[in-house]
Amino acid sequence: MPDFQYPEFYSFPPFFTIQPVLATREKQMALWRELILRYHTEKKIKTLVVHDCPLWKNDNIKRRLQPGEIQEVLDDFCRHGHGEWQDANKTTCRILWRTPEQLATDIHQWAEKNGYVGSVCTVYELHSGEDVNGMSFQGADEELLRRALSILEDRGKCTIFRGETSEEDGIKFA
């Protein structure tokens, strides 16, 4: 996998200082959301460990976010539905490459396009099967995948059947 290509704004020193003007800060936070999501999606990283994330500093311009600023950026990231705190101390954040609602839509569109409506497949096939190569839900966190399937079930777009193991759980698409 090639190295991650940082966007041009990552080399702009004020990017690493939370901006005091609300309109400017909102644009800055949107750029941080974009950067965090793109970095973790491209590298297929599902969990952000706050103290171990390379995004918080740019050695080329000798700038870094301070701990309180990192917290502000990640709280905004989670508030916008792109992440979920995994612990009360906010040291790890689950990255939602796609929101459960987006994944639900992606899964159902895939099922329609590939002729799965009216037939059954397993959760494992949705997660790791050959038919899902390149799809947004391929390799997704299993809990997130199940939340997306629950959304589809609530909408009447699928029925979930419990197997003997979680890998054997089936989904019938409607």
Question: Can you walk through the features of this model?
Answer:
- The chain is an alpha+beta fold and 174 residues long.
- The chain is built from five helices and eight strands.
- The strands form three sheets. It has a three-stranded antiparallel sheet with strand order 1-5-4.
- Strand 4 and strand 5 form a beta hairpin.
- Helix 1 (22-42) crosses helix 2 and helix 3 packs across helix 5.
- The radius of gyration is 19 Å and the shape is elongated.
- This is ESCRT-II complex subunit VPS25.
- InterPro entries: ESCRT-II_cplx_Vps25-sub (IPR008570), ESCRT-II_cplx_Vps25-sub_N (IPR014041), WH-like_DNA-bd_sf (IPR036388), WH_DNA-bd_sf (IPR036390).
- It comes from Phaeodactylum tricornutum (strain CCAP 1055/1).
Strand element count: 8
> Which descriptor suits the 3D outline?
elongated
CATH architecture descriptor name of the largest domain: Orthogonal Bundle
Radius of gyration: 19 Å
CATH fold assignment of the largest domain: Arc Repressor Mutant, subunit A
Provide keyphrases for this structure:
174 residues; alpha+beta; Arc Repressor Mutant, subunit A; 2 domains; three-stranded antiparallel beta sheet; 5 helices; 8 strands; ESCRT-II_cplx_Vps25-sub; protein homodimerization activity; transport; protein transport
Give me the secondary-structure topology.
Layout: H1 22-42, E1 47-49, E2 57-58, E3 63-64, H2 67-79, E4 83-85, E5 92-95, H3 100-113, E6 120-122, H4 123-128, H5 142-154, E7 158-161, E8 170-173
Antiparallel strand pairs: 1-5, 2-3, 4-5, 6-8, 7-8
Helix pairs in contact: 1-2, 3-5
